[in-house]
Amino acid sequence: MFGKRIDYAGAVGFIVFMAALPLVFGGNYLIGVLTVSVIYGIWAVSWDFMSGLTGRENFGHSLFIGVGAYTAGFLNTAFGFGGWWSLPAAMVMAMLFAVIIGLPTLRLKGPYFALAMLSGAVIMQRLMLIFWEQTGGEEGINGIEPLIRSQLGFYYFALAALVLVTALLLALARSHWGLILRAIRGDEATCQAAGINVTFYKIASLVISAAFAGAGGAIYAHYQLQVSPQLFAVVTSITIITMVYVGGMASIYGPVGGAILLVLLTELLREFGEWRLMIYSCTLILILFFVPHGLIAPTWRRFRSKLRRAQ
Amino acid sequence: MSALLEVSALNKHFGGLHAVKDVSFSMAAAEIVGILGPNGAGKTTLYNLLTGFIPADSGSIVFNGRTLRGLAPYRIAGLGISRTFQLCRPFVGMTVLENVIVGGLGAQAGERGDLEARALALLEKVGLSGKEQLLVELLSYGDQRRLEIARALAARPALLLLDEPFAGLGSGEITDLSALIRSVHAEQGLTVMLIEHKLHEFMRLVGRVIALDFGEIIAEGSPEEIVRHPKVIEAYIGRGDEQAEEQADAA
Ligand SMILES: Nc1ncnc2c1ncn2[C@@H]1O[C@H](COP(=O)(O)OP(=O)(O)OP(=O)(O)O)[C@@H](O)[C@H]1O
Ligand SMILES: [Mg+2]
Fold first, then answer.
1. Which of B21, B43, B241 to mutate to test the pocket of ligand 1 (most atoms within 8 A of CB)?
2. Interface pTM (ipTM) of the complex?
3. What is the pLDDT of residue A3?
4. Minimal-distance CA residue to ligand 1 atom 22
5. Is A190 on the interface with B (CB under 8 A)?
6. What is the pTM of this model?
7. I need a surface site. Which of A94, A149, A246, B204 has the fewest CB within 10 A?
């Protein structure tokens, strides 16, 4: 179908563009910014898969990120696990946390899940400080080995991870599974009347979301070469949610653009010093005010339907 | 004939209110049974008990030889009981076609068949062809009621529970919808239970009526018997309900 072909062309164009950027402009600074934006992309996409599709907002995605990062950092420094082992271990740990929080709270209506995620992240941040002898306290864990030594190589690895995660979650979101998640957002009671095990789908989706957030956390740990309690910060979760809103909720690919856009915006505003946060917030408010459904995904949809009509 | 559904001594209290009181009845396969009763009689509550949305206090429900009490709603649906809601509850934010496809997704992946083809056929049957790609919230009320039935049928139920399917519809739409119910009943041998206040169509559609008042069964029988039943007349006319006239018309 023509529409599908436009989507594939768009995806290839995006990948080529992202891969070419550091080759054209060069410089370790740019590569660093792009690497961080790509990792944020992984977090935003994984948030969107669960919360964007089902409408159950997760205010503590940083919990999974922190758990993944600390797992990778700890296994790497304490036991000398290489990155290729610490990465899957980080995913498993994050999934475990998803089950522990999702199982009791996702079967309930109301704000329990959102609150449990939020407090889970806050509590974990505290625990990292309380058990400072094991966790390194405020300093966190240092001396983590890089996954790939070359900066450019690492960036390409992170970009590949983002592409893989996005493709996977996009395929899932466009399958029957995604249809069920959107139906859960529409009406849970009707889902049950249709014989759908709503609780199972919500928990399983949270587990999938957590796995990739944890993987992103581990990648981040092997990039920064250190982890700190700041990873669990609530502001990280809020930033991710903002990225999803700017990208276009429930579109999966939109949040990738939202993440890259906002990370770049933060960097561009660096020269404004004190004014940075204010300009950043005002820009966001304007975006969300004028395009409540987001910037990236709706723009892409409009562009695609124009091409289709032109054809 | 062995019963498809066997309900005995079912009870439900909401605080001090005895909403369903010692209700017992049975239904044979391929029957169309109507539930009649004034507002607040406990009709919807009875559906909620049958489908597991609300747990019963006591009593038993046996469907196809399996006891249903204590099962989660999605499991009961999986055993072949589909329901519609008194107020339409579509999957908002999704298209008409997607709504019906989701209706069939409760089945095991291997038993779903070609969901899209079946959903399209069902939409044609309920008269929603051409509206497949519309967002469901853009449908008229009457169309939402039809969609609700298509969604329920997509699960291939053995028993269909309809809660006031004619509410809010014009008389032409009611005739269409009841023809639809009759045809799925005739073609697939579907067992149907329906709650209705619109007595005209209702009495022509159902083979047997169970009349409820204050949570209790006050009468059971053919439509002709029911409209002449003194307790039914008292439940309606005795309290000056607006349905009284329709009731008299139907008789
Ligand atoms: N979840 C609930 N909690 C408390 N009370 C309830 C609940 N559901 C129903 N009731 C009460 O139980 C009684 C029966 O309600 P139900 O909805 O079953 O009546 P109904 O026969 O369907 O009436 P209607 O024709 O108005 O739909 C009413 O008095 C209602 O207020
Ligand atoms: Mg009712």
1. B43
2. 0.89
3. 77
4. B44
5. yes
6. 0.92
7. A149
- Residue B243, pLDDT > 60, answer no
Alpha-carbon Rg for chain B, nearest whole angstrom, is 18
Q: Measured between CB atoms, which of B77, B93, B94 is closest to A193?
A: B77
The bridge status of strand A226-227 relative to strand A141-142 is antiparallel
B235 vs B41: CA distance, rounded Å? 10
Print burial letters for B153-179: b (CB count within 10 Å at least 16), e (below 16): bbbbbbbbbbbbbbbebeeebbebbbe
**Fold classification of B5-80+157-250 (topology level):** Rossmann fold (3.40.50)
CB-based contact (8 Å) between A149 and chain B? no
**Which of A276 and A153 is assigned the larger pLDDT?**
A153
How far is B81 from chain A, CA to nearest CA, in Å?
8
- Over pLDDT 70: what percentage of chain A? 100
Q: If you average pLDDT over residues A121-135, what whole number do you get?
A: 91
Which 3 state secondary structure label does DSSP give B23?
strand
Q: How far apart are the CA of B46 and the centre of ligand 1, in A?
A: 9
Give the tens place of pLDDT for each residue, B66-110. 999 999 999 999 999 999 999 999 999 999 999 999 999 987 767
Q: How far is the CA of B248 from the centre of ligand 1 (A)?
A: 25
How far from chain centre, in Å, is Cα A36?
A: 11
Residues of chain B with CATH 3.40.50.300: 5-80+157-250
Q: How far away, in angstroms, is B121 Cα from ligand 2 center?
A: 30
Q: Which amino acid is at A272?
A: F
Q: Which of A28, A33, A31, A100 is CA-nearest to residue A64?
A: A100
Question: Mapping DSSP to helix (H, G, I), strand (E, B) and coil, where does residue B210 land?
Answer: strand
Nearest CA to ligand 1 atom 12: B19
pLDDT band at A275 (very low <50, low <70, confident <90, very high): confident
